[in-house]
Structure formats: C-alpha cells, structure tokens
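2024-03-11 09:14:02 INFO worker-7 job=invfold-0412 stage=load source=structure_tokens
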C-alpha cells in the first residue's frame, strides 16, 4: 500500500505512504497514477488532495530503485506529472517536512500547493550528477523566476519553504501553514477551488527572465570540471526561451545524457558509499547506544582544541583539559576564533554561540574528566606517554565511560591493553583542522565492544562527521594510503619531475591540492620526526633521503616560508633551492632525469592509492572498497565526481590496472615489490 486513499465528501485524499521519505518507487507511482485516472473519471469526485503525512511530502526518487529497471518503468515520473497536467479537476498538494527532487516536481505539477513553513524545498539532483528530469527545470522557474532557479538548481541548494514563500511574485506556494493546520487548510482550499476553472497550471505561466544571471551562471558552470551544473543552466534557459513542451523535451534529453555520464556514476557511488559506511558487522539496529553527552578532551594543542570545537558545535558539553596554562589559553583562543567566525559568517546566531560557549569547561587537572561519558585523548604522539595517560584515565573516569585516542600512528590495542576496560577503548582519528574536516576514522580495536563502536558512530554523526570504521594498523586507512602516494610523488621527483609538475598534473585531474602543496601545508617536519622515530625503533619501511634533506635545510613548508616551494603568504612559487637540491640528489643516486608525462604522474599517484587500498581490504582493515573511497572523498580532497580511488581503479578495469602496475614495477627507481603481485 503505497498510496492510501480516503474520501471526504466530494474530495479524494491520497496519502503517499512509502517510508521513510515517500520515495517515488514504481509501486507508488503506479498507485498514484491509477488513483488519478479513477478520480478524473469519477463524477462523484470534485477535487483531489495529495499529501505525504507529517514527516515528508516526498524526498524524490526511491534510492532503493537506483540503477534498477523499476526506476524508469512506466509510469515514470514525467508520465505522472503529465497525468497531473491532464487532470480535469483541481489537485492540491499539502507539503510537510520536505519536497525534494522528484517530490518537488510532483508538487509543481499540482494546481495548488500549501506548505509548512519549515519544510525543506529544493531540486538537488545535481549532487548526483543529474538534472531534474520531470519538468522541474521548466516549472520551477515559472514558479519562482529564473533568477532564483539559477541560484538553487545548478548548486542543488535547499531552502526553507517560508523563505521561498516570501519571494516577490512567487507562484510556488498558495499558502504557508503550521504543521497542525496543514491538512485542514488544504481540505478547505480544495473545496473552495473545486469548481474554479481554468485550472492554474505552472506550465501555462511564463517564467520571469533574468538575462544577466543566466549569463553569469553559464560562465560559472562552464568552468566546472563536471557537466551537470551547466546542463541544469541550459535546461533552465529553456524555460524562458522555449514553449513548455519543447523545454521539457530538451530537459529530458539532457537528463538521459547525464544519466550515462561517468561523473554521475561516480557521484551516485559517493552517495551510496556514505550510506553503506554506517553498516558495520556486529552492529544492529537494536545494538544499544550509550548517551555521550559530556565529552572530555585531553590536550589542548592543534587537535585537542579542534576536537573540543567540533564537539561544542555539535551541541555537546565539553571539558577541555591541558596542564600547560599557555597551551590551554591558546587552545581556547583557537576555539573561540572558530565560533566567532561562524557568527561573523552568519552560520550561527550570537545567541546560540553564547549557549555553546556556556557548554565549555576547562581545567589544568585531569580530575575534571571524572564525569565525562567519553574522553578523547590528544596528547603528544608517544606510546609511553599515551599508555601512562590511559592508565590514569582508566582510574579516574567513571566505569561506563568510553576512552578514545586520536593517535595517527600508534597501535590502539597496545593503548587499550593498559586499561581495565579495553572493550571501552577505541580510536577516534580526527583530521586537521578537526573543527572543519568532515572525516572521522573510527578505529575498532581488537577488544572494542559493538555497543561502544555503535555509540562512537552515533557521536561522530552528532558532531557532523562522516564516519568510516577502520581496523588497527599503522596509519589506518587514509594515512597508510597517503604514505604510498607521497612515496610515489618522491619517486617522480627522482626521475625528473619538479614538485610543480606533479602538483599541476594531479590538480588538473581534479585533486584539490597536489602532494607537494599538501605536505608543505601540513609541515614536512611532522613526517620527518616520525621517520626519525621509526628509524630508531627499527620500523622505518623506506628511507626518504630527499625529504630528509629538505627538512635538514629547515624547509618545513608554509609555516617556515619554504618547503617544496617558496612561499609569499600562501602562494607557492617554484624554488631555486629545491631545484638545486633535486639536481644534486639525482646525481648522487645516479639517475638521468627523464621527461615524465602527466598521464604517468596521474596514474602512478592514483594507482598507488588503489593498490594499497586493495591490501587494506585483504587485511580487513577496511570493511569495503566504498569506505576507502569515502575516506578519500571526505578527508583528502579527492574529487567527488571521480568517485574515489577504488571506484576509479575499478572503472579502468582489472586488466588495464594490472598492465599499468607491471609497467610501474619496471621503472628503475620505483618499488617493484609495491606494484608487484600481478
Ligand atoms: P600538539 O603538540 O599540538 O598538542 C598536544 C598537546 O597535548 C599539547 O598542548 C601538550 O601540552 C598536551 N599534553 C602533553 N602531555 C599531556 C598530558 N599528559 N596531559 C594532557 N595534555 C598533555 O599535537 P597535536 O598535533 O594536537 O597532536 C595530538 C595528537 O593527535 C597526536 O597523537 C597526533 O598524532 C594526533 N593527530 C594529529 C594530527 C595533526 O594533523 N596534527 C591529525 C590527527 C591526529
């Protein structure tokens, strides 16, 4: 039962009923189509009211049907909208919760629309590399004007219904109601307009033009590296330049083209990767979640301060502990700067900011952490220190409290082992800057209990992070792969590339930032110190002579005014000192510089990620390939429209990847063992 029918005198009420968001499944479309046909033919019915209950009018296409034949089976959404156009009786849409994508297109095809003020409204198809394909690009500009449609559709922006209803000369909503009054108001309106003719159809209106906005949007979207936003603009242009039916036909053609585009496939993969990541073996819907209301953060350095900020912004109570008074003051100042910036940018009201600040307590003594439900440790990266900290935390924290470490390289199991509660210990690996970066690797130790992991995932979600579960290994998912990628970047320098050539090639491919600009930003000294420590411990995988030399020159990166580049502020300039360093290094290792193509640079970097990703899967560190993709999309600036390193390699095909690996294994100064095994 996807559509619940009921009668109220001459009124037919149709309630969409396909939880959770009334996705427009084949069964729902068919039931609605048939109900409309019957209503049109039934002389006892004077008007029709469509609603979706209190939670959602409709969230659009049913994602469970994505890629399945049912998604496009007749009646498809365009056919349903055309059926509404052909109705001889008024149809009223009553919208609560949300009307998105196809859900909004359905509502736009009705004759009247009532809405609850806080309902979310938008056509976000562009986020999946598509355009609204059921008349949305033709009816929406006719409802709100081309200018606003150009702002919302190519960007996939959602707006509150009340804000849209305030627009001058809008025909989107006939009335804004409270949630309680919606159905009654819709029923009253349906009765009142039952005999009104002609029926007001958006298709019969003209859209208010906006020539300057159109030109600007076209220029902006033409510069983007993926086609959907520009296709949205072109389809919207049709709303002012073409008769309605021709505009719809052009929109449909654009939709079909995008549907088969690699970018849309990648974006849909990313969308499903986000949903899949929450499914973790051992965690069920009924696995108990602990309420983690009060969070303690130990260490107020770069990470501790950022983690405390993220928790505060997520509405949690935070106790920030740092023994060093100056470091504590710096940490609190950084936190305050972030909160104030949100206020200045209009993302946070001054009042709410005050409320958040009141949720922060600070102390120089770890005794202040005794009541916390979750304590996140972010002290220096040193096993002996972390173990001593965890012994203390175990003794002072309440018995049910969870203990988490933000370590990026140390073994979480060895840290958990010093406590009496290893089942309540896990890694929460944030990325810098922690208040901004979406990615959170949730590291499951050998002893971590399912309910602890489930609670940590719920915590991550509450503070707005994209959580990916990882097993224990050096670097977890993201950093273990990035190490191999950076190794390749250094091999490329050995062989004749400049840092700028490597960065340019991978940035042109779509990465937000190439490897050398990235490490200059993070600080070359960080990995240098890790290498030194590993050399001492005998755990260094591979010496990186060139990177060591750079650090020996004091070239740590942006913060020291020079790294792989020279810096004026944030601007990276090719460095003569680095060019000389490279030349001397090549002479020393006996390499004749060769010309390396951009295609080779890109493939070696990308496939280094995919090859290490395969190993992580084989070892069980990552649960699924799409989790690895999600790590790279949300934490490393991998272009979303390329889907992630695993998706990208899979799209090339196993044979093509294997052939490329054999080529790279034969490059003199690369690492044949790394590329090998194929
Ligand atoms: P940091 O050096 O900026 O801050 C560490 C802070 O811990 C200092 O303020 C220090 O005074 C404090 N501290 C030291 N011993 C302490 C103790 N016994 N009790 C309480 N506080 C103590 O270091 P950062 O960068 O914040 O790193 C912290 C942890 O986060 C490390 O384990 C690091 O590997 C990890 N991490 C760092 C990332 C980064 O990009 N910086 C990214 C992800 C993880």
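2024-03-11 09:14:09 INFO worker-7 stage=emit residues=678
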């Amino acid at each position: 039962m996807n559509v619940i029918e009921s009668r109220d005198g001459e009124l037919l009420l149709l309630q969409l009923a396909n939880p959770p968001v009334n996705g427009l499944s084949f069964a729902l479309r068919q039931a609605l189509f048939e109900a409309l046909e019957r209503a049109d033919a039934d002389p006892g019915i004077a008007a029709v009211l469509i609603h979706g209950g209190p939670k959602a009018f409709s969230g659009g296409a049913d994602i469970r049907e994505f890629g399945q034949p049912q998604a496009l089976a007749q009646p498809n959404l365009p056919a349903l909208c055309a059926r509404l156009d052909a109705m001889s009786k008024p149809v009223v849409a009553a919208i609560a919760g949300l009307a998105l994508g196809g859900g909004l297109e359905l509502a736009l095809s009705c004759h009247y629309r009532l809405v609850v003020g806080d309902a979310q409204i938008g056509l976000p198809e562009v986020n999946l590399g598509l355009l609204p394909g059921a008349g949305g690009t033709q009816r929406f500009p006719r409802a709100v004007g081309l200018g606003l449609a150009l702002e919302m559709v190519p960007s996939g922006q959602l707006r509150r219904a009340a804000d849209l209803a305030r627009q001058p000369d809008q025909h989107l909503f006939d009335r804004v109601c409270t949630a309680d009054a919606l159905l009654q108001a819709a029923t009253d309106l349906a009765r009142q307009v039952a005999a009104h003719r002609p029926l007001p159809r958006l298709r019969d209106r003209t859209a208010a033009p906006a020539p300057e906005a159109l030109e600007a949007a076209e220029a902006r979207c033409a510069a983007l590296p993926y086609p959907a936003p520009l296709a949205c603009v072109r389809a919207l242009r049709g709303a002012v330049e073409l008769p309605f039916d021709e505009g719809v036909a052009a929109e449909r053609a654009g939709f079909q083209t995008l549907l088969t585009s690699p970018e849309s496939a990648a974006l849909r993969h990313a969308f499903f990767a986000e949903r899949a990541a929450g499914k973790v073996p051992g965690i069920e819907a009924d696995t108990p979640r602990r309420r983690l209301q009060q969070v303690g953060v130990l260490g107020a350095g770069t990470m501790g301060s950022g983690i405390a900020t993220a928790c505060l912004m997520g509405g949690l109570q935070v106790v920030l502990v740092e023994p060093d008074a100056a470091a504590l003051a710096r940490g609190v100042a950084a936190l305050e700067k972030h909160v104030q910036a949100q206020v200045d940018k209009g993302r946070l009201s001054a009042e709410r900011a005050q409320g958040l600040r009141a949720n922060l307590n600070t102390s120089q003594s770890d005794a202040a952490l005794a009541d916390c439900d979750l304590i996140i440790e972010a002290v220096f990266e040193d096993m002996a220190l972390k173990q001593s900290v965890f012994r203390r935390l175990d003794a002072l924290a309440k018995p049910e409290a969870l203990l988490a470490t933000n370590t990026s390289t140390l073994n979480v199991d060895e840290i958990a082992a010093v406590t009496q509660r290893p089942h309540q210990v896990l890694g929460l690996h944030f990325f810098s800057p922690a208040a901004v970066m979406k990615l959170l690797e949730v590291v499951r130790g050998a002893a971590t209990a399912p309910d602890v992991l489930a609670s940590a995932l719920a915590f991550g979600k509450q503070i707005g992070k994209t959580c990916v579960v990882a097993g224990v290994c050096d670097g977890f998912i993201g950093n273990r792969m990035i190490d191999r990628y950076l190794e390749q970047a250094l091999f490329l320098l050995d062989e004749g590339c400049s840092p700028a050539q490597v960065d340019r090639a991978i940035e042109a491919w779509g990465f937000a930032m190439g490897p050398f600009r990235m490490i200059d930003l993070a600080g070359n000294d960080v990995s240098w110190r890790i290498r030194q420590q590993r050399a001492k411990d005998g755990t260094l995988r591979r010496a990186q002579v060139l990177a060591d030399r750079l650090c020996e020159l004091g070239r740590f990166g942006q913060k020291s005014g020079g790294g792989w580049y020279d810096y004026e502020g944030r601007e990276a300039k090719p460095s003569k000192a680095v060019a000389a360093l490279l030349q001397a290094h090549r002479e020393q290792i006996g390499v004749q510089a060769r010309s390396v193509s951009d295609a080779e640079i890109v493939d070696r970097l990308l496939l280094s990620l995919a090859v290490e990703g395969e190993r992580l899967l084989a070892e069980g560190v990552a649960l699924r390939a799409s989790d690895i993709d999600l790590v790279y999309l949300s934490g490393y600036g991998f272009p979303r429209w390329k889907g992630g390193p695993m998706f990208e390699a899979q799209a090339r095909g196993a044979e093509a990847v294997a052939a490329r690996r054999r080529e790279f294994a034969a490059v003199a100064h690369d690492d044949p063992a790394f590329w090998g095994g194929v």
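2024-03-11 09:14:09 INFO worker-7 stage=report msg="The pocket of NAI is lined by residues 298-304, 322-324, 327, 378-381, 389, 406-408, 430-432 (CB under 6 Å)."
2024-03-11 09:14:10 INFO worker-7 job finished
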